[in-house]
Amino acid sequence: MRILVAYDGSVCGDGALFDLAAAGLPSRADILVMTVANSADALSGSLAMAERARRYLAERFAGWRIRCEAFLDSPARGILSRAGTWKPDLIVMGTHGHPSPGQPNLGSVTQKILLHSTRPVRIARARIGADPSAPRLILGMDGSPGAFAALGVLAARNWPKHTQVRLLAAVDWRESLEGAFSPIGKRLRQAAAKLSAKGLTVTHELRLGEPRRIILQEAKTWSANCVFLGSRGMNPYQGYLLGSVSTAVAFHAPCSVEVIRKANPPAPRKDGPSLPAKAKRAHPRKAAAPVKAR
User: Fold this and answer.
1) Assessment of whether the complete model's pTM goes beyond 0.70
2) Which residue from 114, 91, 111 is spatially nearest to 16, judged by alpha carbons?
3) Which of 208, 211, 252, 288 has its C-alpha lying 20 to 30 A from 175's C-alpha?
4) Per-residue pLDDT reduced to its tens digit, 182-212
């Protein structure tokens, strides 16, 4: 597994490193810790900052192969460009802390990565006092291909014995009148059976209401460690569509959020290039040779 850790040296960036212990990641993985400097004078400091993060991870994940790099570029463009060339299985980023009620709390860089990346993104919000040995996970299930992609990712992770998973689906009153409860309930039971076969403790619920509100409320009251969501597929002009539910949960959740994109997406149309395509053409300069993990 390839994991790109976008690190900025902040308290939230440190929280994203800490949060990796509760992400169910494999014992062996290739990790790239990258930092971005906005001036040539700041490159050496950025590389030293990345090396500090590398040492932290090396002490806690002995089987990981970790290296670090620093780039001279704008942060969002540099991260998208490196993700485009290295093709990680997951991008990990911190946020500006826990959101305030009714207010989005994603930094501008995190927002751009979340909205424009073609790779899965983990927005890490480490919960104070959370036990990484017994994660509580929420999977939003709406029956879409993106949701099933998120299910596959969650099922493939290496979770500790006492991990709990809660599958949530919601329908509004119009869908309930149209008989949506029956097919969605069937998908929930199928997803629960798949995760239970992996040794996870699984519960599933189908509720009447607005999906984003139900997921956010459950994440808060249940003290979830992470919410897993799927994207809505590809738009030929703008790349991946995040979807209103995924956007709201990513912005407002009190815990980490992973937004899963399906592997090998179709290329955006040439008459309407997406932001990642522009970022790839930027080719930011590398600050120094990558520092190899000891």
Assistant:
1) yes
2) 91
3) 252
4) 677 888 889 999 999 999 999 999 888 888 9
